[in-house]
Amino acid sequence: MYSDSHQPDASPGASDYLSADHEGSSGITRLLHRVAQQDRKAFAELYEATAPKLLATVLRILKDRTWADDVIHDTYVKVWHKANQFDAERSSPITWLAAIARHGAIDELRRHPARRETASDELDSIADHSPTAHEQISDQQTVKHLNHCIDQLEKDRQDMVRLAYLNGWSRDQLAKHFDQPINTVKTWLHRALKQIKRCLEP
Amino acid sequence: MNERDDLDMLVAEFVLGTLPKEERDALQARRAREPELEALIQQWEARLAGMLDGVEPVEPGPELFARIQRTIDQKTDQHYAAPEARSAAPDNVVSLRKQLTRWRWSTAIASAAALVLVAVLATQPEPDPQAQSFVAVFQHNDEQPAFLLTVDLTSRQLNIQPVTAEPQPDKSYQLWMVAEEYGPNPRSVGVIGENFTLDQAALRDYDPETLRGATFGISLEPKGGSPTGQPTGPAIHGFLYPTSADQGKGRN
User: Fold this and answer.
1) Tell me, what's the pLDDT at B224?
2) What are the beta bridge partners of residue B171?
3) Chain B residues with CB within 8 Å of chain A CB
4) How many other C-beta atoms lie within 10 A of the C-beta of residue B230?
5) Which of residues 37-76 of A touch B (CB under 8 A)?
6) pLDDT of A109-159, one tens digit each?
7) Cβ separation of B64 and A11 shorter than 8 Å?
8) CA nearest to A166, candidates B24, B41, B56
9) Fold (CATH) for A11-115
10) What value of ipTM does the predicted structure carry?
């Protein structure tokens, strides 16, 4: 049984890319292959199709529009130069793109932690998912499966995983928020990640 | 726990984002040369990416993609221009640097000594000796040009285009010119209006030869222009450069 309490809302466009066999995903893959050939038109299409999702991902971590714009700028400059490194056998295209953007944002945040004030409503924002938008989307198995696995964790650990992944929280921030020693946080995270991995195995 | 598990957890925490900065940087440095590590990273990215499904897309501003394209254009230009610049236009580049070294922009520019000018050479397939079009690039730093100024010496028409420069609230950009004929102090060519417009005929009273040897500067001034008749704000400067490499050689 899946619990719907953590099913996030999403636009159809955003979710298409997450599953490798979906038409939206192969469209993005084709665009990436053309970008690797330095096709500017394909690059513009790729940007149009993916930038809103990437910007939202980065903005959620950095909480500052100018800062997020800079990371998106760097992300797409990287994509232009590194599109030939994308391997459709190993990665879905949106996962590959989002990883570049997310890691760019987390690197920035670790370099300049003071630039971002911790927003008090972050816990709300991870719990406040509406399942309604999902009903229109046909292929959501991957997302559902992951959410199901995360929902198997203890509540604190669910929040830790989501705050870290989605909001860019460091071990230190998690330790403060959950009032635990850093080593305990590390142990919890490792247990949670192993549990997720086991749960996702076929 | 065996080594394999340790590595798997290191990668998992890297992808999750909680790996401390030093370990994170070290891991990123390794990934390019360790395919096995890269594969583990991709696996964890794939496992966790589903969480992003809940992130509601945010439409980027209209300017962002243009900025990305400009960066790419510039990197591409540098990439292609570097070897050619050495073989086809070394004299031009040297001459430009000499002009910059020689250049003194009163005291206002002294504070802006770190500003660098980089010329973008636009070449024509068949240079027309009659063509008298010149371009200057005003650059904030070594990243992106701020303005492009083109001057047609024959008609003495000018055209200024912002590249990365953006309107500043309650400020005006002002275009200046320094020419030997007029002494060491900059002369105002005009205040650049909103939407980056400037009277195209602002140079009509100047001799083409004077313009050819002049240096141009743009400073950020209080709204409406400098109150003193001299640049008061931070200045960026550019030197007129012919759009044909052959014309440039005549300058040396």
Assistant:
1) 83
2) B222
3) 8-9, 12-13, 15-18, 20-21, 24, 28, 39, 42, 45-61, 64-65, 67-69, 71-72, 75
4) 15
5) 40, 44, 47, 51-53, 55-57, 59-60, 69, 72-73, 76
6) 999 988 876 554 555 455 444 443 333 222 478 899 999 999 999 999 999
7) no
8) B56
9) Rna Polymerase Sigma Factor; Chain: A (1.10.1740)
10) 0.84
User: For chain A, which residues make up each domain, given as ranges?
Assistant: 11-115, 140-202
Residue A182, both tokens: 């850093």
pLDDT at B102: 34
B133-188 pLDDT per residue, tens: 666 666 655 445 567 777 777 777 777 777 777 777 788 888 877 777 777 777 88
How far apart are the C-alpha atoms of A105 and A67, rounded to whole Å?
A: 9
Among residues A129, A7, A114, A127, the alpha carbon closest in space to that of A63 is found at: A114
**DSSP string across B188-241:** EEEEE-GGG---TTTTTTS-HHHHHH-EEEEEEEETTS-SSSS--S-EEEEE-E
Q: How far apart are CA A148 and CA B111, in angstroms?
A: 60
Whether pTM > 0.90 for this model: the answer is: no
**Which amino acid type is present at position B247?**
Q
Judged by a CB distance cut-off of 8 A, whether residue A164 touches chain B is yes
Q: What is the pLDDT of residue B134?
A: 65
Overall fold of domain A140-202:
Arc Repressor Mutant, subunit A (1.10.10)
